[in-house]
Amino acid sequence: MSAKRKRPGPASDSIVTEHEKMVHEVIRSKKDMGASQWEMKREINVADNVITKCIKSLLSKSLIKEVKSIQSRGRKHYMSAEFEPSNEITGGAWYVEGSLDTEYINVLKEQCWRKIYGMKVATLEGIADALKRSNVSQIELSKQQVEEIVKALVLDNQVMEVTSTGTGEFASIPVGKVCYKCIGKRGYGGEPKLGALASIPCGVCPQISHCTPDGIISPITCAYYQKWLDF
Amino acid sequence: MATQYGIKCAVNLITAHFGDLVAKVCECLLRKGPLTLQATVRFTELTSSQVKNCLLVLIQHNCVQAFTLEQSVEHGDAAKANTQYIALFDNIIHRWRFSKFLNIVSQNLDKQCVDLLEALLQHGRLTLKQMSDRAKSGQNEGDDVILDAVQEAIIKLLNAHFIERCPASEPVLTNPTKQELAARKRAAKSAKIVQEQETLEQRVVEAAAPSEALRFLLVTQTELAADGGKDEIDSSIVTPGEKRKRDALESETEYGAADEQVVLWRANFEEFIRHLRHKACIENVKTRLDDGAVTVLKAMMEATRSTEKKVKTENSVPLSLSSIYEEVIKSEEGRNITFDRVRASLIQLSCPPFVKADNESYSIDFKKIIELAQNEEAESIVLKRYGKDAYRMFRLLSNSGHLLETDKIADATFVEKKETPKILYKLWKDDYLQMEKLQVTGAKRLQQFLLWKVNKNILREHVLDEMFHAALNLSQRVAFESEQEKEMLNIPKDKLRDRLRKVALLLGSSQMKLDDAIMLFHDF
């Protein structure tokens, strides 16, 4: 009580510094994962406003830094100055400021597809070399990053993974080596063939499980059907 | 096995074709399984005479099969037998494919064969005399000429396996002995490939089916009158040898001592489904590979079709490169294809593995082609209903075949980590994914992870049920539009006619296309 009433001076500086030390210790103990204010409150039994003051002070003294965490859901995250944030909180190479760099990823995907299309059949090494030579990315991409992009193209059904037979179009690739080819006869971004169920209203209807022959939602009363048959 | 909406579709079909009473009996059998006459009367609350008549109609049209299950009583009394009736779900659903079956025959055989098949589909089953009488009523030719023409058409249809002898009216199904059950268990344990357990419906159908020697055999009057094996056999037959045929005929006592005039014939749905399966495989390969590869695949199917023992054959019989080449050059599209081109096409067909090569022999992997087509259909639904991110996640889980953790899915599909669980949850809620929770005790606290998976068998059943639901909806809408047509009096006739034509075309083509997808998930 008497410490709080003291005027600012060397004596009160040491009390604030003690709390700062405690807060800094908690943050430092989390290493490259950092900590939010909420986590700090759980570990040290100190009032919220005291923690806030300590954080402000530590920031101004450059002992800690603020980092974006993809897991913190809007809460600010702090890290001791000597650590670099881990992939777990930054999200990894594809994250910028806590969000996925979608534009960059999409550019890389399209360029990757065009390289595979040009080569007809390509190995990961071939694709990585082609990307490097064309300077698509200012940052050099690791082999793992190229693989992640190619595998995303496989999931988009733009590219398929095949195994070299060593003959025909695979003549220049060792037998058994994994390689990639563009799928089918559509260009980049073309959607796969529409299935039978997906081409009628019921196939895309979010209410299908509630639809019954005599119910409120039925093929007779259905607004999607009405629109579909509106000639 | 019939899904919930599958049963509703079947009942809807029977109602449209045969009325409410027959549909009531059919629904009872579909929902409750095989029943005796008395049990059916009790459940439907109809009279015995009404139920009997309904069963006769359903049997006539191959939608129900009677059978007897031997009940062996433990303390040694004589085995009791009770006639039961089982609904044949597949045959009921085939009723909305009759136009497709007729189309197959019109592409392969002449008009007389098409007319004959149409009669069999309309009436369910007919004797030779009934078919001739029907043909006579429409023509001015003499009786013998018509009989010959009808026989000729029947033989053509039998050669192609498009029609068959009707099954036995009431086969006896014996319960497997304890030794047989134990042997089956041992076989199942040691088998590397899991065998589907034969359902009761499959056992009944098998027991009722005529032997392969008789199934596609028409013995003419000449042969019946013949005295000891000199006459030529004027029929299609699977196994050669006149004496063997006579022996088989004599042993088939249920046909009543070779009285061919009372033998009943019916459409062989199995062969039509086989044709449609092959067609679907070719269509699927066409979207991925060039015309040469498609021609080679067609030729392989043509060459091995007659060796397929069941519709859901997983692999075709292996063929050598030269046999394939010989078959390819028989067709119009394949006439100018060179031997090297055939070889190159086979390499093309190996990626994805539609055709497997083994020691210079090649066989079609039907199972793979069908699986890929099923995956595409399911993925298309996910893409349209839930969006691109969900599509990538679904494909990741479908291809991996095992449980994956939420963050791993987010990383692989390039979706924000906080958005990923919402999308996965939606797919799980609608039964497209399975989910498991994993709790791990960490250094200071308990962490919970969510793991996700696509279970292909459960997914297939679920998508099939949605398809049947959609098919039922389409039927209802078609009926509704017809009703509306009668009430649209204030709209100019031209405009009305134009709209109705477009609506009928769209609904009709959607029904056909959806039925192809139902066959993909259920029959192929």
UniProtKB/TrEMBL annotation, chain A:
Its domain of life?
Answer: Eukaryota
User: Which Pfam families does the record cross-reference, listed alphabetically?
Assistant: RNA_pol_Rpc34
Which parts pass through the membrane?
none
Enumerate the UniProt keywords alphabetically: DNA-directed RNA polymerase, Nucleus, Transcription
Recorded hits in Gene3D superfamilies, A to Z, give: Winged helix-like DNA-binding domain superfamily/Winged helix DNA-binding domain
- GO biological process, alphabetically ordered: transcription by RNA polymerase III
The UniProt record lists the keyword Nuclease: no
- SUPFAM superfamilies listed in its UniProt record: Winged helix' DNA-binding domain (SSF46785)
GO CC terms, sorted: cytoplasm; nucleoplasm; RNA polymerase III complex
**Where's it mainly located?**
nucleus
List localization entries: Nucleus
The text of the family note is: Belongs to the eukaryotic RPC34/RPC39 RNA polymerase subunit family.
Q: What is this protein called?
A: DNA-directed RNA polymerase III subunit RPC6
Automatic annotation (TrEMBL), chain B:
Q: What is this protein called?
A: DNA-directed RNA polymerase III subunit RPC3
Where is the protein found, in the record's own terms? Nucleus
- Pinpoint the RNA polymerase III subunit RPC82-related helix-turn-helix domain residues: 9-68
Which biological process terms from the Gene Ontology are attached to this UniProt entry? DNA-templated transcription
Summarize subunit and interaction data from the UniProt record for this chain.
Answer: Component of the RNA polymerase III (Pol III) complex consisting of 17 subunits.
Q: Which GO terms describe its cellular component?
A: RNA polymerase III complex
Q: What family does the database annotate?
A: Belongs to the eukaryotic RPC3/POLR3C RNA polymerase subunit family.
Species name? Hibiscus trionum (Flower of an hour)
Superkingdom, taxonomy of origin: Eukaryota
Region labeled Disordered — which residues? 231-252
Q: What Pfam family is a match for this entry?
A: HTH_9
